[in-house]
Amino acid sequence: MSKSTEYGSKGQSWHPEFIRYMEFIATHETYKEMPDAFTQGDKIQWEAPSNRSSGKYKDTHHKRREWWRRKAISINIDPNSAEWISRTAKQIHPTRKKPCKRCGMIMELRYVYPSSNFLKRLNKIEYNEEVFSIEPFETITDLVARLVDVFGDSTFSHLPALLQTNGILVPNLERSLPDWLSWIEKEYIPQEPRILSPGAMSNAPDRFDGFHSFNQCCRSKADKGRSQTNLKAYTTDRRVFEYWTEGNWIAADRLMGQIRAYFGNELCSNGHSGPCSADHIGPLSLGFTHRPEFQLLCNPCNSAKNNRMSLKDVVHLREVELKNETVISWHSKELWDQCKKYVSDDETALRLSKILRDNRHTLMSVFQKIADAGHFTFLSTFLELAHSLKFGAS
Ligand SMILES: [Zn+2]
Ligand SMILES: [Zn+2]
Hints:
Blueprint (H helix, E strand, L loop, with lengths): L7 E2 L2 E2 L2 H11 L11 E2 L3 E2 L15 H15 L9 H9 L4 E3 L6 E3 L2 E4 L1 H9 L15 H12 L2 H10 L13 H12 L7 E3 L17 H7 L1 H12 L3 H4 L6 H15 L12 E4 L15 E4 H7 L5 H12 L7 H10 L6 H27 L3 H5 L4 H9 L1
Antiparallel strand pairs: 1-2, 3-4, 5-6, 7-8, 9-10
Bound molecules: zinc ion (2 copies).
One zinc ion (ZN) binds next to helix 8.
């Protein structure tokens, strides 16, 4: 028994959630009479690759294609029309959701997940000082609801530009979240907008249910390029431009993205439960550098901190400096070097935070004067262009 129901090869067993799903599909009315559904007793034959050249099941792929053809006809899809087989797989699927074979994450088969291009559009919108972290694999409706929650009604004026995509006319709806969500659900998603993607692509008849076994969450392992574009879109920390910040931007952005993607549900540094985000121990807005080192903070702790350093933060930054790391940007370095040794408790740490913030305001007004006088080339010499070029290229 145990032998016949083991799935996957040594060291790479399939996720239990996925095996439960296989059992559900293989015994579901919809897929009855699937050719060669079971081998050796009750073991499900999930995969039917087209390249088997010998053996008892070498024709399984071909036989299943025939099954799909009959299925298509039974639901009035012409098996000679474009994408007939993937349309059939989507239409007959009993739940339109499936778990990932590798990690078990359940994702929708509909086009509900923002693509990296969508996230780039989102990154371009200026939302003042608010920090909005993009959750990987959040559905479009959840994302829109969260945008309205964080940024209020101004979100509605951005929606037509955000959702715009080939062949779909985005209407000018009222500033009403239920109206927008209902349009997105009923009109937008079913048209499979190019700016969104499904949780898994169809590949019938290669797999029993007609879909790739790895969902988008784990496609990266098989499809490296794609995941890297995705990660990059999550991680552009715009504040490094805003505050004329020094540092190793690439490494810091990459780490920040990984924290968001994989550690967002860990405990906060102060022991609270998540969700948490990556917080710079030395705040960028006080002139500290963008370095690949963060602490996890829950939302309440994050807003309580609000660019105020504690004694613990200052002590930590002084220790990091002893290892020859640059913790502070050039424009704030002198001030930090003069004052840091006087910080002995939370009160003095807070005072230093205020001095550094005032220094940034002074810096900005000096830059503004230079800009007003039209000396843009001179101004650009202060930007960390070496970082931004590398950053933009890859
Ligand atoms: Zn996965
Ligand atoms: Zn906390």
